[in-house]
Amino acid sequence: MKTIKIRGIDHIVLRTAQPQAMIDFYCRILGCVVERKLASSVGLTQLRAGNALIDIVDVNSELGRAGGGAPTVTERNLDHFCLVLEPISNEKLKCYLGQHNISEGNFEERYGARAIAYKFTPNKLASLNIHDPNQQRVSYFLYQFYKYYLA
């Protein structure tokens, strides 16, 4: 075998001092579902996000203490991650986020792993960034307006 081939993201792990706020944000606003929750002493809640998982780890738990201190605005354990959304217009997405008091940025052209845009350089798409309760940046790509492929 020459190399391995990556098909996508299996899961990401977000460490936090406010696990319930993070779970509420990712479930209530972004539509994830709690798939598995271990004992609070362990401190792991796994959220289903399409075909991937978002693991929320309480930094005050057994698992969380193994990873060091809590993330802050200047000390993070992850820069950002990108979620692919089902088709929705830019306007409807901005309206939805506004209903949840989430101030969104502007749609910008960014490089993406799964798509080739009609009018942009290969793999660059219009995307939008928001922030979760940990001030972790979450990006969205809106593929419905573009010709795309999935690995």
Automatic annotation (TrEMBL):
Start and end residues of each Glyoxalase/fosfomycin resistance/dioxygenase domain: 8-69
Top-level division of the source organism's lineage: Bacteria
UniProt xrefs under Gene3D superfamilies: 2,3-Dihydroxybiphenyl 1,2-Dioxygenase, domain 1 (3.10.180.10)
Xref: InterPro entries: Glyas_Bleomycin-R_OHBP_Dase, Glyas_Fos-R_dOase_dom
A UniProt-annotated Pfam family: Glyoxalase
Protein name: VOC family protein
Organism from which the protein derives: Zooshikella ganghwensis
